[in-house]
Amino acid sequence: MSTLFDILASAGLWAAVLRIATPLILGTLGALLSERAGVLHLGIEGIMTFGAMIGWLAVYHGADLWTGFLVAALAGAAFGLLHALLTVSLGLSQHVAGLGVTLFAASFAYYVFRMLVPVAGTPPTIVPFQPLDIPGLTAIPFFGPAFFAQTAPTYLAILLAIALGYLLKRTPLGLAIRMTGENPHAAEAQGINPVAVRYGAVIAGSALMGMAGAFLTLSAFNSFFPTMVQGRGWICIALVVFASWRPGRALLGALLFAFFDGVQLRLQPALNGIVPYQLFLMIPYLMSIVALAVMARRARVPQALMQPYRRGER
Amino acid sequence: MRFERRDHRPLALVIATSVLAVIAALALSGILIALAGAPVLEAYRRILIGAFGSRLSTTETLTRTAPLMLTGLAAAVAFRARLWNIGAEGQLYLGAITVAAASSHLLGGLPSAVQIPLLLLLGAMAGMVLLLVPLWLRLRFQVDEVVTTLILNFVALLFVSMLIDTVLKDPTAFGWPQSQSVADAAMLPKLLARSRLHIGILVAAALAILIHLVQSRTVFGLQSRAAGLNPAGAVFAGVPLGATLVKVACLSGGLAGLAGAIEVMGVKGYVTTDLSPGYGYSGIVVAMLAGLNPLGVVLAALFSAIMFVGADGMSRALRIPSYIADVTVALSLLTMLVALFFTQYRIRR
Question: What is the pLDDT of residue B222?
């Protein structure tokens, strides 16, 4: 019990929580935006993998870190265009199309990486984002190192969550997105072009997914290796349901999730030899399933989610 | 220009669709091969040599086809009923570890004729159980099974990793996490001497035919198709939706579990965490390429196996990353989806 208290009282835990949460926040926002317009986006896992690879590769070849981030976002957007073509224009099964995008983006990422980076004993590294020193805040005892010693993309992710919440709830564009997700026919009757809205939401959401991946290689770690995304994309899809399709709750959900992940990571060494470490690693996955079971019924699903929209066809 | 739905799809069109999709995928990955600076046609030739160039490579390709057929069937039967089982990878691993545990601890002394069928059944049941959990969550809490089956893949792999690190660890494996081996009597008979080719491919082919008959000739086949085409309509017509989905899940999870069982009993003899190079995920592509037709799965699985085995040889010869096989297989899923669209619709001006 005292170990648990020590863990909770350490600034390192809280700093880790924000770090673990960042890719989840970005990914969940991306999936949420797409789903709010009515398109399930299971391409997320592959897009995160590709974003992690291409962002890292850009920096490895001399680009600065923010350019790497931008490259990852643009690559994500390109895969988003592919997903939108398949699901919006052709109206194909969103489940299967998304899985196809994931399989393609992930294997393509490995292919490009292997082609351009020769096999080496230790993977090549870059200099990642460094924690920002915020005058006045970082120096506060405990709270400084716990909450104000993050890298810039973490703060960006939190700002984006707030911005997306505002966009969806308070702006005409947000209304158009929500309407398209609820009832594209009604949206069209209001002069909104549901096809354009869906394209925009899927592409912008995919850019966020690419950034989520890039955070892993440009801030959380400093190198890329296959399978590094480890199902984070699927967890984001679960978090969207848990958040009931609201950006504010997505932020909280990702933080809550990261909190448990951070605690289990720190409990592992304490209980080493007593409890197999794999049991701890299962916790995040099992938690997301439990979260789904608890929230699935209560959540307000966008009514037109997974329904292709074709003019004049119901 | 507008799209108009076709009422009827001739069989020749369906077959042509798959062939066209594969050709398109090969053409697209040809671009990637060219970008890597290798001669494209030579690369394709090397893939064929890698897959069929010698007795060894041919038997390797066929050995790889067996699990892909089973995971392909697992996806095909589930998708037909709109049960999105993306968890074949995890079900495969659970089937594999169950077989390893049962044979090394319980049934190892039994003669082959008893032990092999028993182990195959146990492996299949393990896969079933892992799929029944997400199905229960869907029926009870309306949780989308795509996400839960995907996430359970990671849980299953960690579970296997834990077992082969602790209670099922092989003490003679020099510290490598590897499960204890199944008994010699549990190993599947070989089809060809001096090769790894075992009877698993025959089991899988027989199951493909059997499933084809079940789907086309039985009430359950009709019910599972109805559940997929129009769940509400199916219920209205008196189809017991929940019971049908449970049966479909048992079949689908069972097939994936069986894939793991035969991979252990046919090839390796033990379980490691790299037992499957993504057979579960490739099974989804195989099923889609086959148009969810069980007999088509046989051919689609062969195509995937050719790509994977052939690309290994090609990558050594031309220094192209062997990931090109994964890219081509993934691309063939996307091209197949697009091709399917054009068989369902015709373009009218």
Answer: 92
Residues 6+ apart with CB under 8 A from A68: A55, A56, A58, A59, A214, A218
Cβ–Cβ gap B321/A115 under 8 Å: yes
pLDDT at res. A132: 87
CB contact A111 to B (< 8 Å): yes
Q: What is the SS3 assignment for A41-103?
A: CCCHHHHHHHHHHHHHHHHHCCCCHHHHHHHHHHHHHHHHHHHHHHHHHCCCCHHHHHHHHHH
The alpha-carbon gap from B144 to the nearest alpha carbon of chain A, in Å, equals 8
Interface test with A, best of B83, B155, B338 (most A CBs within 10 A): B155
Could you please state the CATH topology (level 3) that the domain comprising A2-117+143-295 is classified under.
Answer: ABC transporter involved in vitamin B12 uptake, BtuC (1.10.3470)
Give the number of beta-carbon pairs within 8 Å between A and B: 127
Selected for mutation to probe chain A from B31, B143, B322 (highest A CB count within 10 Å) is B143
As a whole number of angstroms, the distance between CA A214 and CA A56 comes to 7
Nearest in space to A107 (alpha carbons), one of B306, B72, B277, B161: B277
Give pLDDT, residue B348.
67
CB spacing of B329 vs A103 below 8 angstroms: yes
Q: Is A2 exposed, middle or buried (0-12, 13-18, 19+ CB in 10 A)?
A: exposed
User: Cβ B340–A235 below 8 Å, yes or no?
Assistant: no
CB B278 within 8 A of CB B304: no
Q: Which two tokens stand for residue A305?
A: 């989610």
In the numeric block, the tokens 């146990």 are attached to: B122
How far lies B69's CA from each of A198, A299, B74, B207, B293, in Å?
36, 38, 8, 9, 12
Which amino acid is present at A33?
L
CB B151 within 8 A of CB A238: yes
Provide the residue ranges of all domains of chain A, joining segments of one domain with +.
2-117+143-295
Q: What are phi and psi of A313, to 5 degrees?
A: -130, 135
Best CATH choice for the domain B2-348 from the list 3.80.10, 1.20.144, 1.10.1660, 1.10.3470: 1.10.3470
Do the chains contact at B3 and A310, CB–CB below 8 Å?
yes
Which H helix or E strand runs over A145? helix A143-147
The predicted structure's pLDDT at residue A192: 94
Instruction: Encode pLDDT of B232-271 as tens digits.
Output: 889 898 889 999 999 999 999 999 999 999 999 999 899 9
Residue among A100, A114, A237 minimizing CB distance to B147: A237
- pTM, two decimals, is 0.94
pLDDT tens track, chain A, 314 positions = 567 788 888 888 999 999 999 999 999 999 999 999 999 999 999 999 999 999 999 999 999 999 999 999 999 999 999 999 999 999 999 999 999 999 999 999 999 999 998 877 788 999 999 998 888 788 888 888 888 889 999 999 999 999 999 999 999 999 999 999 999 999 999 999 999 999 999 999 999 999 999 999 999 999 999 889 999 999 999 999 999 999 999 999 999 999 999 988 888 888 877 888 899 899 989 999 998 998 887 778 899 998 888 876 65
Q: In A, which residues are within 8 Å of B32 by CB distance?
A: 108, 111
Contact A230 B154 (CB under 8 A): yes
CA nearest to A91 within chain B: B341
pLDDT at A188: 93
Q: What is the Cα–Cα distance from B161 to B272, expressed in whole angstroms?
A: 8
Distances (CA, A) of B189 to A294, B63, B110, B139, B193: 48, 13, 16, 41, 10
Q: Which of A103, A110, A292 sits opposite B148 (nearest CB)?
A: A292
Judging contacts by C-beta atoms under 8 Å, the chain B residues touching residue A42 are 146
